[in-house]
């Protein structure tokens, strides 16, 4: 008598059917590769358990490569946060025409995912030794980027500037909803109490936005630290960063140690996971304020 009709029994599984491709994709290309890296980081070449790979992370040039990667990530995250925040604030609160907002957000959505070999080629074609900007400055103004301005696309700042191409749009996408969440009543109340625009931002807006800003900085840091293809395609072996060291260990050379490469990748996973956890935690706190 109380049996569920067949149509209702089938409805529950069908509602989850659309998530099957996503679950398969995440399992095959995220969870399984990550587990393979984590397991390989604690194995020897014959498959036995060892902690030597983790200990070896403190040997040779590996610590310096992590340090350089951290500095590049911090620099690109800081510059991306400042420039992206300024652009988003100009669109939301400034005198920039409203029609600019939609194209800017659309471009940001595309540019924030533009990385790897195409991005490296684009910057080499623009700022490389025979790039468009390099040749133009040398031919028309006699300015040599590396000699006169000290800029080299294959250097620390060259990679940092390249990362800004996707760091700034990512900042715009994330911080724009937070800026739009600032209520007009808060600013009006501050003005009624005699606060200037600077005092409003310093005492009201920025304290509310601080969790979002700090969380977005952590996300941008993780985004830059985990960027592998762009760094390898752009700098090759000219810059001692973690992705280059990792590639050298796992590509199969005689002196390569794949399991040490797994340990280096495991270290990158730990750093990026920690940064993402900070972002998620601060994002939750920011959403409580803006509700």
UniProtKB/TrEMBL annotation:
Ranges that cross the membrane: 20-42, 72-94, 114-137, 149-179, 199-221, 228-248, 260-282
Entry membrane topology: Multi-pass membrane protein
Residue ranges of every copy of the ABC transmembrane type-1 domain listed in the record: 66-281
Primary residence: membrane
Keywords recorded for this protein, A-Z: Cell membrane, Membrane, Transmembrane, Transmembrane helix, Transport
Localization terms from the record: Cell membrane
Top-rank lineage group of the source organism: Bacteria
UniProt family annotation: Belongs to the binding-protein-dependent transport system permease family. CysTW subfamily.
Protein name per Swiss-Prot or TrEMBL: ABC transporter permease
């Amino acid at each position: 008598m109380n049996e569920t009709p067949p149509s209702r029994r089938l409805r529950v599984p069908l509602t989850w059917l659309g998530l099957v491709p996503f679950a398969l994709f995440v399992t095959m290309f995220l969870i399984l590769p990550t587990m393979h890296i984590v397991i390989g980081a604690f194995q020897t070449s014959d498959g036995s358990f060892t902690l030597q790979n983790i200990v070896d992370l403190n040997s040779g040039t590996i610590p310096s490569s992590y340090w350089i990667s951290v500095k590049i990530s911090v620099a690109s995250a800081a510059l991306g946060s400042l420039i992206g925040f300024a652009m988003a604030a100009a669109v939301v609160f400034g005198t920039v025409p409203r029609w600019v907002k939609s194209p800017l957000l659309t471009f940001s959505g595309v540019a924030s995912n533009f990385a790897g070999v195409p991005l490296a080629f684009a910057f080499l074609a623009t700022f490389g030794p025979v790039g468009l900007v390099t040749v133009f400055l040398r031919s028309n103004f006699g300015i040599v980027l590396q000699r006169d301005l000290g800029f080299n696309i294959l250097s620390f700042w060259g990679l940092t500037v390249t990362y800004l191409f996707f760091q700034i749009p990512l900042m715009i996408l994330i911080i724009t909803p937070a800026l739009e969440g600032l209520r007009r009543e808060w600013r009006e109340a501050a003005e009624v109490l005699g606060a200037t625009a600077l005092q409003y931002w310093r005492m009201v807006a920025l304290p509310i936005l601080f969790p979002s800003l700090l969380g977005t900085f952590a996300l941008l840091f993780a985004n830059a630290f985990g960027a592998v293809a762009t760094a390898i395609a752009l700098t090759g072996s000219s810059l001692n960063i973690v992705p280059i060291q990792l590639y050298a260990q796992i590509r199969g050379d005689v002196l390569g140690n794949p399991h040490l490469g797994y340990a280096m990748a495991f270290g990158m996973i730990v750093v990026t996971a920690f940064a993402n956890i900070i972002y998620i935690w601060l994002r939750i706190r920011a959403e409580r304020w803006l509700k």
